[in-house]
Every structure is written in C-alpha cells, then in structure tokens.
Amino acid sequence: MGARRRGILAMLAAATALSAPAALAQADATYRQRLPQDEVIYFLLPDRFANGDTSNDTGGIPGGRLNHGFDPTDAGFYQGGDLVGLMQQLDYIQGLGATAIWVAPIFKNKPVQGEPGREFSGAHGYWATDFTRVDPHFGENDDMAALVEAAHARGMKVYMDIVANHTADVIRYRECPANDCAYRSRADYPYTRRGGVDGEPINDGFDGTNFERLTRPDYAYTPYIPEGEETVKVPAWLNDPIYYHNRGDTTFRNESSTDGDFAGLDDLMTEHPRVIEGMIEIFGDWIDRYKVDGFRIDTAKHVNPEFWQAFVPAMLERAEANGIPNFHIFGEVYDVDPAQLARYTRVDRYPTVLDFGFQSTVTEIVARDAAPDTLARLFSTDVLYEGGEAAALALPTFLGNHDMGRIGNFILMSRPDISDEELLARTTLAHAFLMFSRGVPTIYYGDEQGFTGDGGYGGARQTLFPTQVASYADDRIIGGAQAPYSTEAPLYRAISEMARLRAADPRLRRGLQTVRFAAEEPGLFAVTRRIDGEAGETLIVYNTSTSEISANIEVDAASVAWSSSRGACPTAATAPASVRVTVPALDFILCRSE
Fold first, then answer.
1. What are phi and psi of 530, to 5 degrees?
2. What pLDDT was estimated at residue 209?
C-alpha cells in the first residue's frame, strides 16, 4: 500500500473517531447481538455512491474507455465511486437511520465486456474475475478492511453482495464466434457424447455424480479461453472450463435456468464438488479476513439447491467461529410469487430471501391504486416460509433496485401528470409501508434524495455526486433538487424520522403482525404488531386514497389506553376491542397501546 493510500485511510480513521460520539459507540457496542430484523439496510453501488479518490477512476488500467471502462458521460461505464468515498459518507448513511450497509459486489471485475458496438463496463460488480481482491476502480483490500472497521466503530453492519452462479464472460465456444450460443439441453447433448447424442463417446461412465469421470467439457459446445485471458481468473481453478456448464445462453426456463450462461456470463457447474469447495473457501475467507456481517447472494434461483444446502451452513458456521452470531444471508430470487420465494427457504435452505412479492404489491397499491387487501393476501402467505410468520420478520423488503428501477419512477410511469405534492406524498407513503411492515426495510441509495430515473435495467443507477450523464441529469427529482448528500431533502428527512420511530419501538422490528383492516378499493390498511409474552400493541393505519377517512379498527380487547407516535391517535378505545381513527389522504398514523 502506497504512502498516499495510507494517508487517506489514516485521515478517514481520524474522521470516523471524531464523528462517532462516545455515547453512540457505547450504545451500539452490542451491534453483533442485533437480530436481522432489527436492521435498516441501505443498498448502494460503490461506483455510483461517492468518489473519494480520483486516482483510481481508471483502475490503473492504461488505454481508453474500452480498456479501463471509465467514462463518466456514459451510464454503462464506471463513474468513479469507490470505497474511500463510501467511508467519507458514513455520517450521511447513519443519519438516514440505516444500521447496515449492503454493498454491491466489490470483487475485481472484467472492466469491459460485450460485442463490438455493444460494450459495457463491470461498474455494477457482477462480472468477477478475481474473487480475492477489491476491484481497483473501487480501491484496495485495505480499503475494505478500513470500511468494515469504520462501520463497526459506529455500531453499523456491512453486508457483502456475492456471486456463486457465474464469473465474467471469458470462455468462448468454437461453434458460435459471435458469442450468441443457443442453449443445448442435457437430453440432446448428454455429458457422455461430444456434440450430441450421435457424437463421439466421452466422459465414460459419468452419471452426474462421479465427477472424476468428467474430464472433457466439449459435450455441447467446444469451449476455449481466448489468448491472453488464460489466467485472468483467481483462484486459478476458475480458469478451467471443466468447472462450467458450457451449454450456451439461458432462456431463464426449465433446466437452462440453472445450467445456462446468464447473458453470456460463464455459468459455474455448481454441482461439482470442486466448485462447492472452492466457493466455500473463497467467501469464507472474506468472513475470516474482514468480519463482515452478512451476504446478499446474487442470482440465487439459477443455482442448484444442493449447492446452497452445502454452502449456506458452511457460511453460518464460519461466521459463528468469527464471533458473528447473527450473520444475515438472503438470496435474490427474482419472483413475485410468495410460494416460489418460500421454496428457497424450505428446499434450498436459505435463511431468508429478498421479498419481491412485497415490492410488487406495494408498488401496485401506491402507484396504480390496487386495493390494500392485496397486501393482506400477500401477508397471509407468510406461513409458507420455513419457520412461518416469525421467519418472515427477517425477509428484506424493498421498493426498487438497480435492476428494475425506483419507486418514484414506477409512480411516474403510472401517473405521468402527477403533481409534485402528490408524487412526494405517494413516495413517502410507500416508504411508510416499507419501514413499518414486517420484514427488514431495505432502502435503495438515492431514493432518499428523490431520484426517479428511467426505470428498467441500468436506468436507476445514478450517481449521488454530480453527474455528466445526460439521462441522469434530466430526471425529475421528488421534493425538488438538493445539493449532493443533502440531509434536508424531504425524503431523507421523512425516512430518517421513520427509522427513528422504528428504532424506538421494538414491536415495529420484532413484533408479529396482524392485519386488522384491508379495504377492497383505495383506502385504509391497518395492522397491529405485538411481541409474544409482552403487553400492548402498536397500530399502523395507512390511507392509500386521496381523501381523509375515518373508521373503527379492531384491536386487542386489553388495549384500552393509547398514545400517538405519529399522527392523530385516539387516547382511549371507542369500545372494547375497537378504536376510531382518522387518517389524512395518502398518509399514515402510528399508535401505541400502553
């Protein structure tokens, strides 16, 4: 590590010591004991969050944009953000009320890939070549160590985004030089024949389990590694095509979902014992070295269940050995069907998964006037998850992400003529659903600044620092444009207040949820949350309509005295097991029984 780098890290360490008051450090000294459902997660892409060290913008790679991938005028290329910048903005993240930072993959990536005229950079981090080091565009391994140390000093957790399904697109196939290889199935191209059922016998006796007999990877296509890239992947075993499926591009259906190349990316043969062993070794080492607090696992649905059945327990065991008892593992299963989501907690044995069903349902309610009872139906399926309703408390919930777009854009797409006032109200209401419903609220960076974006893949990856990308600069900003990292932005203030309320009331974090009322058209949605064995409950009532509504809401008969956490709450029950509430249009109230 150079003298300049040591100086930067030393200054950041000093700044962290000054900005984290002793009282705060003492209050959060037991952060390791917090359960996953106690957290508020802040998800960010390091390339888009803050540029703290301009000397690494090109990753030290010579040449032009197609060599190093840096072009701050192009949304598909590196913009300059790094881990030093992230450390500089920890005050900003903690001020929002976030207690855990989920960082998109930081591993060294193939800087640029794609066919001529359709090149993109690995700025998002999901095209790893070296799983043992930080991408040089983001900094060095010492920066990662410093980030985790600085976060932990504040009582904040750090979650890594990891990939076991694929590596960068390096392997090519002789049969399709344009790299547009259609998927070739196991039935038509069995492992024991070269190039189809009538081909030359190979891999004699391979039955899908005895991998010592799998010695040739040319059963479907003839894979090869282009000159100059023979040793680009680290650890070295990742350079051998025998550890990949080599069957062409996935159609995202049936067997190709697990065995096909994801958009050309090299699909690992995750059923192979060497791959299982290697991935456990790779990611266990990150726990050992940096004491990170959790993993979000990319493309979880595209890996065979047996891999996860071995990998997840190994990671939890490694974390426990490092004094991390509440290591949070959640998989990305891109499906809105709760039955499909729950399957991965029962069969693949994930502790939990991202709640795409919640995202879809809340979007329909807030942006498209779906009836609140659709959310009641979603919550009724919590029993499907391994562990039932209690397990659903640990589901990370969210409103949008880097692949699909932002909640503000979903509202704008459905209501292009919406006023600024209503756009802010609907977006705030969506965040209230996020912050107070069961689950672990996950805020997508930039939403707190009112970013909307263009939606879809890559359309919501704006920089928090000033942009040179035209399609980012013309975005409509919810609540009005603010200076970068403004803590006065309307949504920043609203979310931080919600986070304060959530932190102050254990029922809003650990309490089981009961739906008390769900309108069949835009209107009220009411839930109560209570902790088993403890007296009292917290009532949350949302109004998704554009008119004020008053109604009687059923509560526990023992809840006779009430106080307000937010909004106009009754002070007493209207009748046994009933309270009368009035909720303004596109707003919500929080009431506590004493």
1. -145, 155
2. 95
Go through 300-322 and write b for each residue having 16 or more CB atoms within 10 A of its CB, e for each that does not.
bbbbebebbebbbebbbebbeeb
Q: Which of 10-14, 240-244, 297-301 has the lowest mean pLDDT?
A: 10-14
Catalytic residue positions, numbered: 298, 332
pLDDT of the residue at 26 = 38
Kindly state the tokens that stand for 215: 């010695």
Type of residue numbered 238: L
pLDDT given for residue 253 in this prediction: 95
288 pLDDT band, cuts 50/70/90, is: very high
Q: How far apart are CA 274 and CA 297, in angstroms?
A: 20
Predicted model pTM: 0.96
**Element at 542 (helix H, strand E):** strand 538-543
Number of domains in the chain: 3
Give me 518's structure tokens.
């769900």
In-domain check, residue 269: no
Q: Are 584 and 543 in contact (CB under 8 A)?
A: yes
Q: Which amino acid is at 462?
A: Q
| Residue showing tokens 């080492």 | 285
| Cβ atoms within 10 Å, residue 391 | 18
Last residue of a domain, one of 451, 473, 504: 504
Is the domain of 149 the same as that of 278? Answer: yes
Which CATH number is 560's domain given?
Answer: 2.60.40.1180
Residues 6+ apart with CB under 8 A from 381: 338, 339, 342, 357
How high is the mean pLDDT of the chain? 95
Q: What does the pLDDT read at residue 455?
A: 83
For range 372-396, the mean pLDDT = 98
Phi first, then psi: give them for residue 509, nearest 5 degrees: -110, -45
pLDDT at 431 (0 to 100):
99
First-to-last C-alpha distance (Å) of the chain = 57
> How many residues are present in the chain?
594
User: What is the Cα–Cα distance from 458 to 554, expressed in whole angstroms?
Assistant: 44
Mention every residue, 6+ apart, whose C-beta is less than 8 A from residue 377. Answer: none
- Expressed as residue numbers, the domain containing 184 is 173-251
Conformational region of residue 62, where left means phi above 0, alpha means psi within -120 to 50, and beta covers everything else: beta
Same domain, 383 and 474: yes
- Find the radius of gyration of the CA atoms of the chain: 25
Residue 14, pLDDT above cutoff 70: no
> What is the per-residue pLDDT for 117?
87
If you average pLDDT over each of 23-27, 158-162, 454-458, which comes out highest? Answer: 158-162
Question: Of the candidates 338, 333, 370, which has an alpha carbon nearest to the alpha carbon of residue 354?
Answer: 333
Q: Is there a single domain that holds both residue 378 and residue 514?
A: no
